[in-house]
Design a protein that fits this description.
- It is built from 15 helices and 16 strands.
- By secondary structure, it is of the alpha/beta class.
- The protein has 2 domains: about 110 residues, Roll (Urease, subunit C, domain 1); about 290 residues, Metal-dependent hydrolases (TIM Barrel, Alpha-Beta Barrel), CATH 3.20.20.
- Strands 1, 2, 3, 4, 5, 14, 15 and 16 form an 8-stranded mixed sheet that branches. An 8-stranded parallel sheet has the order 6-7-8-9-10-11-12-13.
- β8, α6 and β9 form a beta-alpha-beta unit.
- Bound molecules: N-(iminomethyl)-L-glutamic acid and fe (iii) ion.
- N-(iminomethyl)-L-glutamic acid (NIG) binds next to α3.
Length: about 400
């Protein structure tokens, strides 16, 4: 099957195959071609270039993109899209004055979602989750990382990971799975954290390895959740079972979790709403991608990750949704990109780099996703008629996506 997209007003993020991430000042540069075409065969980008060189290509399907912009689909490197039910009552409780922390302390929050998930069948969990997956695909997401962490028992964590595996095999969207057993301490272990960590290490991880249920291991390194010592223990154990570390860190407090992540060669450190100079230093000269989650800051009214400080220190930055029932009930990467520009003072070029190639890096797939590159997966967004790519973040809340192509197929 072949597809030719012609007369593209501007084709964004065209790169050769050697770029795996962009950092610092380079993030201000979004390589593009005006009046361009893209030629796709099966699920791959075979060629692209200026319209004057388009004549040699013929295809079964031709899409005319006059006045439209084409860019790679979003790579959402941080989500909890597999969950059961919702937490809209806690949302109202917060409006009425309770804090996120107060809600968690009285047994709401993650434990609330865990109870609901434990009482939901695997098939029902799959059905609820795929509605969200279908929604985000229409919003231009072509790759997504999905975490467990709302199970918090052996059975329920495995149930989540099996649902993620089923999504992986049933949908064209690229899926990476992360084991987040250490998301919160379950009620049954409130006075025995040691025992829960041992349950993760001795019972969950071996099955996850045997059934090949996860690519990454994650932990919520935060006051009231898991300490640096716990984080060290879980990341080390995860690595022994073949999982690459990622961390939820510096969401409410900065106390050295980033340096610990770097020590473990974490693929990414995510949240970073609170950041100090030593965190920045730790990230310099590392391979770890900092990931900002602006929809979470928006929804919880907490500080935004200081993107300017991160990028101006020469570091890369990725943007992701954090889609989950408690802190971010939205998987809309277009809103993430807009909010990064509006609230974090990222330029549209920086935000698009952060949501495509750097997002792909943060989920270990930038060899195959995240840019318009010969040989990469044909995952493309075709916009509606818009004046320029700046219009995408500018017209926040508006859906300017006309067509989404995943693996060479219009969805
Ligand atoms: O990434 N911060 C930890 N975990 C999730 C939210 C958990 C929840 O409230 O359900 C997050 O924001
Ligand atoms: Fe998260």
């Amino acid at each position: 099957m072949s597809v030719l997209i012609t007369n593209i007003k501007e084709l964004l993020q065209v790169r050769d195959s050697t770029t795996y991430k962009v950092s610092g000042n380079d993030m201000r540069h979004l390589p593009s071609l005006k009046d361009a075409f893209v030629y796709i065969e099966n699920d791959r980008i075979v060629a692209y270039g200026s319209m004057v060189n388009c004549k040699e290509f013929d295809a079964e399907t031709i899409i005319d993109a006059t006045n439209k912009i084409v860019l790679p689909t979003w790579c959402d490197s941080h989500s909890h899209i597999v969950y059961a039910g919702n937490r809209e009552q806690e949302f109202v409780d917060r409006i009425n004055g309770l804090s996120y922390e107060e809600i968690a302390n009285r047994g709401g929050g993650i434990l609330n979602s865990a109870e609901t998930l434990q009482n939901t069948s695997e098939d029902e969990l799959y059905q609820q989750s795929i509605q969200r997956v279908k929604t985000v695909m229409k919003l231009g997401t072509g790759a997504i990382e999905i975490k467990s962490g709302y199970g918090l028992t052996v059975d329920a964590e495995l149930k989540m990971l099996r649902v993620i595996k089923r999504i992986k095999s049933s949908f064209p969207i690229k899926v990476k799975a992360t084991f987040l057993g250490a998301h919160a301490l379950p009620k049954a272990y409130q006075n025995n954290k040691e025992a829960y960590l041992n349950l993760i290490i001795n019972e969950m991880l071996p099955i996850i390895e045997t059934e090949q249920l996860a690519d990454y291991v994650d932990i919520f390194c935060e006051k009231g959740y898991f300490t640096l010592e716990d984080t060290d223990k879980i990341l080390s154990a995860g690595k022994r079972f073949g999982l690459i570390p990622k961390i939820h860190v510096n969401q409410f407090n900065a106390f050295g979790g980033i340096a610990l992540g770097v020590k473990h060669d974490a693929l990414s450190v995510d949240h970073l709403e609170e950041l100090n100079d030593s965190d920045i230093t730790a990230l310099q000269n590392s391979n770890t991608m900092p990931v900002a989650l602006p929809s979470c800051s928006y929804f919880l009214s907490i500080p935004y990750t200081p993107a300017r400080r991160i990028i101006d220190a020469g570091l890369p930055l990725a943007l992701a949704t954090d889609y989950n029932p408690g802190s971010t009930p939205s998987g809309n990467m277009n809103f993430v990109v807009s909010t990064a520009c509006i609230k974090m003072k990222m330029t549209p070029e920086e935000a698009i780099n952060a949501a495509t190639i750097n997002g792909a890096y943060a989920m270990g797939i930038s060899n195959d996703y995240g840019s318009i590159t010969k040989g990469k997966k044909a995952n493309l967004i075709i916009t509606k008629n818009i004046p320029s790519y700046n219009y995408l973040p500018y017209a926040f809340g508006e859906n300017n996506i006309d067509t989404v192509i995943i693996n060479g197929v219009r969805i």
